[in-house]
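Run log, item B.
One chain of 186 residues. Sequence copied directly from the ordering sheet:
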Amino acid sequence: MEHPHSKKFAKVRNYQSQQQAFLIGLLNDQCDIVFQKPFKISKKTLQFLTLKLIIFPKQDEIKFASLVKQKCESILTLEMKKGLEHKTAIRRFENNKHTIGLDLLRDILESFGYFFNTKKSSGKKGALIMENIYEVFYNGKFISSREDIIIKGERINRYLTNIIRNSIDFTLPKNCKVINNIMYNV
């Protein structure tokens, strides 16, 4: 029998993955993105992708996976010092990777003129609070709704997951035609 929270968990996790893929679609206009094959491929929900590097023109780069891990480790250390149970801290570490990764993608995109209207989800007892995007603006102009994020994000996620499934590292080149087609011709 399926756990009563399983459907809610899957819906939340899928929307995180859809948001991530949609943000990747926006960011792909600006840079190359290097993905790393995840430890395991999700079978019940959309895959949350592992971004290794974001490479901008002029060779500027963000070591995305390292930065997210570093921030999560800082939070883990702080929570353990406050007496949080080890098992809970490790579970939060995994959840925090998603929250911090999405926050970082939004921050990067904001530097390029994007703005996001978000709603905060309820965090449990000190856990990081996830901000879910429901509207996207570019240079002050509305460009996408929650429905756009779901549809385009899922298509991008499935496209990238199929590639990553068969490779160790994969570089998505700036202005990838497939991604642009999904983002701007739907």
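Observations after the first pass:
- The chain has a mean pLDDT of 92.
- The helical segments are 6-27, 64-81, 86-110, 146-165, 177-184.
Flagged for discussion on Thursday.
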